[in-house]
Each structure stands twice: as C-alpha cells, then as structure tokens.
User: What shape does this take?
Amino acid sequence: MNEPAQDPAFRNPALPPADRVEDLLARLTLDEKIGLLHQYQAPVERLGLRPFRTGTEALHGLAWHGPATVFPQAVGLASTWNPDLVRQVGEAAGDEVMAFHHKDPQSVGRNVWAPVVNPLRDPRWGRNEEGYSEDPWLTGVMGTAYAWGLRGSHEVLKTAPTLKHFLGYNNETDRCVTSSGLPPRVLHEYELKAFRPALEAGAAVAVMPSYNLVNGRPAHLSPLIGSHLREWAPDDILAVSDAYAPGNLTTPQGYHRDLPEAYAHAIKAGLDSFTQDDADGAATLGHIRTALGRGLLTEADLDAAVRHTLSIRVRLGEFDPATPYDEITHEVVNSPEHRRLAREAARQSITLLKNDGLLPLSAPRTVAVIGPLAGALFEDWYSGTLPYQVTALTGLAERCATVYHEGVDRVALRTEGGYVGASPDPGGGPLYVGSERSCFDVFDWGGGAFAFRACANGRHVQAGEDGVLVNDQPGPSGWEVRQTFRIEERPRGVVLRNISSGRYVTVAGGVVRTTDDPDAASVLSVELVESGAARAAEAAAGADVAVVVLGDHPLVNGRETEDRTTLALPERQETLLKAVHAANPATVLVISSGYPFAVTWAQEHLPAIVWSAHGGQEYGNALAGVLLGDDDPGGRLTQTWYRSAAELPDLLDYDVIASDATYLYYRGRPLYPFGHGLSYTRFAYSGLELSAAEAGPGDTVTVRVTVTNEGGRPGEEVVQVYTRQRRSRVKQPLRQLRGFAKVRLAPGESRTVEVELPVGDLAFWDVTRGRFVVEDAAHTVQVGASSGDIRLCAPLRVRGERIPPRVLTGRPLDAAGHDEYDGVVLCDAAPVAGDAVRSASPGAWIAFRDCDFGGEPGGDPEGDPVPGDAGPRTCALTVSSDEGGVVTLRLDDPLTGEVAGAVTVPPTATRHDFVGVSTPLAGAAGVRDLYVVYESEGVTVSTLAFLGGLRP
Assistant: This one.
C-alpha cells in the first residue's frame, strides 16, 4: 500500500519558522523569488501560494475599506498616557483588519502600515497627528503598545505591524529631496530611540523607510536597516518601501543613474518589498531582472530579501491548517465593545489646558455650541470611514438645551457680469454667473486656505479635473484636495486661486472655471450677507455658557505633503472666538486638532480651554461627559505648545540638541509644557523616596511618591518622573521623562506610586568612542504633574564612567563624530555607508573637544613638546571637493586659535571620490580642543588620522 503524501515542511506548524522558510525558499525558482519583491506579490500556484499584498492602513482603526471603528488620532491616543488602553485599541483595530481580510483577502492584507513612531520634533510637521510624542521614549512606549495590540498575543501573528517612517522624517516641504542632518547623538539618543522598543520587543515585525534623505543618503538605502533594525529584532523583519519612493532614487533624488542600479542598491541595503506603480509590478520586477543581468545583484541577495518576506508570511500562519484568528467575523466591526472603547479612548485623550472654575459646567439651562467644528467630525487621510458621528453639538444636545451656529461668514461673489451662482440640485452642478444673488459660506482653515460651501445645496465647491467649478462635495477631501482656495487681493476686489492646481478662477462664456493665466482671473467683489461672528455672538449672549469648537481640518493646511508655517489659529476662527467671548464671558474654547496651536489670546482672556485630537466617532459623547462633569479630563500633552512659531528652529534643522528643540532642550517659557493637563480636582505630592541614593549602570532605582486627592471629586493624575544630569562632558537635556503612572483617586484618597528607573537608561552617546555611556555624575530625580510642574526632587549619585580625553592615535576620527559645529552639513561619505562633513560656507568649522595630543607643551618658542614625548606628528585627512580649497587645523578657537596645520584640497571627480592629504602638526601637545576650519565652501572631510609617536 502506498504511503500518503506528506505536506511539505513549510506547511508544518510544528517546525521552527526558520526551517519552514528555508524549505519554501528552496522550492522557489528564481523568477518566483523575483515575483515576491513587489507590494503585490505574485501567487505561486504550483506550491499553493496565494497572492499576498503589503500595506493595510490602520493608524487609529482600519482605513480605506469602508465603515469601521474610528478611534482618536494617534497623537490623541498617546495623550491618554495609558499604554494598556492604546494596546486595547490596537487589538480592536487588528480584529477589524482580520474581519475585512476574511471577507476580501486580496484587498485587505495583514501587513499593517502602523504605528508611526517618528518623534514629533516640530509641531509644524504636516503629519503631526500620525505620531505620538516629541519624546522618543514615550513614543516608543505607545508605539510598542499599539503594535502589540495589532500583532496579537499568540505566537502566530494576527497582523504584521510596520513601523513608519525610518528615519529623521518630520517635514513635508520638499520631503523627497531634503536631507535630515542627524549628528551621532541625535541619531542614537533621539531618532533611533523611538524605533528600537517595538522591534526589540517583537511587537513590530516590519519597517518602512521614509521619503527623505538622511545625511545625504536616501533613507531607503540606509545601512542602519541591517546594522541596527535587524540586529535589534529577535526575528526577521520585513522592510517595505513607501509608495513610489523607490522610483525617487533616480528622479528627483538623482542618487543613481537608472532604476536597475537603484533597485539593486536598495535590495542590498535591506529593502524587501517595492511599493511602486500600484498593483502593476511588471516594471519594477523588470528592473530587478536587469540588475541581475548586469551583475549588480546575485541570487543570494534576492534570497535574503525573499527570506524576510516569507518569514512574515509563515509567522502569519498563512501556510498553517488553522490560526487563532479564523473565527473573527465582521460582527466585531463597530461592535458595541469597540464603540465603548472608542468613547473611553476619546474621554481619556481630552486635555484640560486651562480652567478658572467654569468647568465642569453646572447644570446650564442653555449652551451655545458654536464654531465650524461644533457640528462636524472630520476624517484624516489615514482615518477609517466613520460609521456614525457624535459631534460636539449632538453630544451636548442630548444632555442639555443648546443653540447652535457655525460662526462662518455668508457672502455673495459678484463679477462685472453678475453674481456667481450655484445649482440647488443635491448632486450639484457647474457654477455660473447670473443676475440673482447666490450665497456661499466661507470656512477659514488657516494658512490662507478657504473653502466655499454653496448655500443652494449645502455642498462645497471644488475645481474639477476639467477646471470647471462645481458644488458637489461634502467638504475638503481626497489626496488631491480640490476644494480649497486662496483669496488674493487686487485693486478692485479679490481673485480666487485653487490651491491644488494653482490655477485662478475666471468666468468664460458664463462658466466659472480655472485658468493658468493670472491676468485672466476674474476680479470679484465680496458682499458680506451675514457675519458669522456677529450671529454667533448673538447666540452666545442669550446662553448660560458658550462652547466654541475650533481647530483644523485634517486635510487642509497641515497634512501629508503640506507643513504649516504658523502655529496661530485661523484668523477668522480667532475673530469668532473674540466676538463670542465679548458677548458672553463664560466661554469655553474647545480645540479639536491634530497639532498644537499658539492660543495665546485665549490663554490670557478665556476662563477655560480644552484640547483633544480629532476624537473619532464617539468624540461628542466623550466631550460632553467631560464638560458636564461626568468624567475627569484624562489627557496630558505629549508635545510642547509654544507661544509662537518664532520660538522654533528652522523646520529642516533636525539637531534638537544644538537648536534647543523640544521640551528636552527648550529654554523658554512655553504656553503649555510637555506633560501638561489639568484635573477637576487637586493632587498633592509627598514623601518622595528613592530606593537607593547611589547606583551604577546595572542597577534599577525605584522612585516612590505618595499622591493625595485633596479635592472633592474623583480624578485622574499622571505622575511623571524626570531626571536631569547635573554635570557632563556634553550638553544634556534640561529634563527628560523616565517613567510615569496614571492613577485614579477618590476624594481624600492617597496612594504610593512606584516608577522603576533603570540607571542604564541614563546613558548618552559618547562621540569620542562611538558607544553609549553612563557618565559618573550627580543627577536630580524630579517628580510632578508635568515637565513644567515639578513638585518634588531628590538627588541621585550615579557611579559611571569618566570620559577620558579623545585618543587620537589608533583608529581615525570620523569627521561626523565631532562635538560642535558651525556652517557645515552632514553628508554621505559613500553611497553604501559612512557619513562625512561638508562646508556650506567659508569659515565653517567642526570641533573635537579634549583631544590628547600627547606630551606637554615644551619650552621652545613654538610650544612644541620636548624631545622624546609621545604624540602624533602628522594629521592625514580624507577629503573631496568640487573646486578645491583649504582646510586649517586650529587649537582651542576656530578664529584666533594657533594654527596646528593646513592642507590644500584638490578638486575631485565627484563628492564620493575622496583623496588623502596630510599636514605636519605644530604646537599640538597636551589635551587641547581641535578645530577643523573649512576656509572654502564645498569641501568635504570624511576622516582624520593622526600619525607618529615617539621622536627619535
């Protein structure tokens, strides 16, 4: 009798995943392997492999596939300061991904492109709402929690979470061509620190490089993918490209001559999956085949990439007879449990910024609910489709009597030929010019972006693909937002310019359309039909309290592809707020936004201010519960709120240390500090104790503090623990979050909170030796309600290393490992790996502190060491330059310091063609500061080697 055929090893769940992967890899032909390198992986029918696709969006709930539970935006989830809750949201989102996957496995894949763990370095970043915090440690905590929820608690993955976007990505302005300069300390202490926890824990199993360049090299070619990300992870991780990013490697980045060369480099750097040309992978795979034919790639290179892909598919249980998630059905989508979770997440994210006693509202007879966000909920680009909407208005209206006004101006637009009119048809129609006055409501979304809603049918105006203006949209929407316009002043009126197309509005043959010719733009007279501020003030004047809901539209003026230029509220929104407050001093400002605003006027004049991110489908219920006192506001800020954008460095300055950026280094007085958030009750702190007054790098110190609710209401407090290193070789943060605990206390209740502080977490990157070090130093442990509200402090003596002077002999100094700089940019020393330093202007310099030149200054007039003393006699530099130049070595000062040497840099063929030049060293003895001064622009230094020793 014949034995039954056995399943291949890759289908045997009893075997280790690595063995299953190797078995499957060995069965694939070369062409089948290539077919697995695109986002839409080709099936291998002879082995029973189904098609597989990467890239399901689930940043705060499943997106882009129809109605699903919409939770608060990611920055709102982090504002709960509740990792357990964030994990529950991730679990719910993962379950809904599985439900949709079971219905349509081809469209809804299980590789989820979330969470985003870019630290929120600058609040002007257009994608601010996607991240968690400006603090990299807190970002890592929240990102790990959400990723754990997505991946599930079984060995078999529920979904395969992907960390975005690696690396140094905080600007939309020219994002595909700008380079983020990351000095070693910023790289290791700030940027990488946010990515490591989720990978190291095994919570995230994939990573997506970012569009930008880092130190001159495209992030998709980063050697850190292999040297760091894959080293941290306990298992294989998948590296997927961002959409259309691989094609950028030739144009516009110009990093490679053609796509076969670029794609070969990307695969060797660690990229496993190309998100290019949507579902059609033919061109991409063709370029990979060409690279193989040219010898730019080997089959072993492809095997490495395919192995990572297959590892994820094996761990997802794709080849198992059953998985723990097979029974998840569509009943989980927007289930009662998920709706309750959405409401709780929204409630805990609501942050009370100011309260002079107006809140909570005490049985108001009438509430005026006012503002362009009062009666609306918005979906951001990565939001799911709202299954229902509980707005601020509906949430409050269910609880008390309300009057409502949007507070937007109603205008008529008149041309020389008549009024601009709009169709009353519910589906809209082309705008026209006629004799009867037609009205439009004007929405100010900031940054000079306005939207017009036709009163005739309540639909927004957009510039169609054919250029004709049509009133057929529910509001600003889509990737290419065609529904916003700029209002430009002209001598006889205004002209409108569609922001998306850049084209001007004109009237041609009675049809309102757009034109490229600014001189052909129709000059319009704007007739104010009804002042939104005045009507809103009338409504507020007759109410007990006014709740004004303002903020951003997530798809306008601050979104993917568009950074903000200001932190101010939209001008017409602030005008509305002032008018309402003048009519009724009992005014609460509710801000709904994905980023901070500089609400300085409101802070000075209003009695109460509340903020939350866009809160999802249950936002209105959560808000009403907080405003009316059912619940304590549970949120705390995870970003600094500044008084003005003038307090921020340049958007493209990624050196948070040198530029005093984020709460870590900011020396000013913010509007609201990192960690800020008020309660309806009062908390007292007492009895701060450390388990040890002195500790070493391998120890953990327990921080204990007693928190007491001294008020008459139950409330929530986030107890935050910070440290500050008192002395150091280098610039240290002014304060740094090390841990926190969220507690709920009844009136009069006390609780002792414990937070663990691993002393190893106090390490910083030592540029002199290229590693983390815990320095021997005194620290202060600070405990309080925010980074700006420290209640108690305790000293902690840390037994660590003393950083010695730089050893110059032995291995060369990397120019990028300097201590300070001026007028330089970090760039790539070679396409594959390595950083260098290039001068942006004559007189630029880099400094190396505490360099040990050996010996002691001698007695001769030049200060040379006495004969026989050890020390380098020559400095050899590796340099390149477009046009040649001069580099001078000075001691102790870049302008007046004595010259220790100088080299002439010859012109080189390209910036990557480095040559060696050298100079004798004069007067360099003892421990001195070394300045490398670039006398010319466009000179690059990669390394400095110090040669010599004992004199004969």
Notes: The chain has a mean pLDDT of 96.
